[in-house]
Amino acid sequence: MNYWLFKSEPSSWSWNEQLKKGEVGEEWDGVRNYQARNFMINMKVGEQGFFYHSQKEKSVVGIVEVIREARQDSTTTDKRWQCVQIKALKSMNTIVHLHQIKTQPELNGMMLVNNPRLSVQPVKEHEWKIVCSLGGVSP
Length: 139
Prior knowledge:
By secondary structure, the protein is an alpha+beta fold. Helices cover 24% and strands 35% of the residues.
């Protein structure tokens, strides 16, 4: 199984809004970066990801699951842009801030640490386990 990280500005789409969508989930639309789009094209139903609040918060706040594989992004007619649909699985028991992640030597290679601007990014299995542990949730 692959793991992912989905970044959102809380003022645009927050974890609480994602939670309210329930089992229906929400299309992860509006991504206009080829690398992030390619990551979504590779996602499979059932794979999980961190929901990350960017901007001021800079923290992992929850875990989501991919519930629909990549398809045309409904916010554009441009066929180049695709997106997945995700649903909230659970909130982190303890919010994991970026500064905590940066203090973990085992996470020095994490894409979030080295390329924090990318809105959708892969997370390696060992990184997943460490961040889950920091957040007080079972991986």
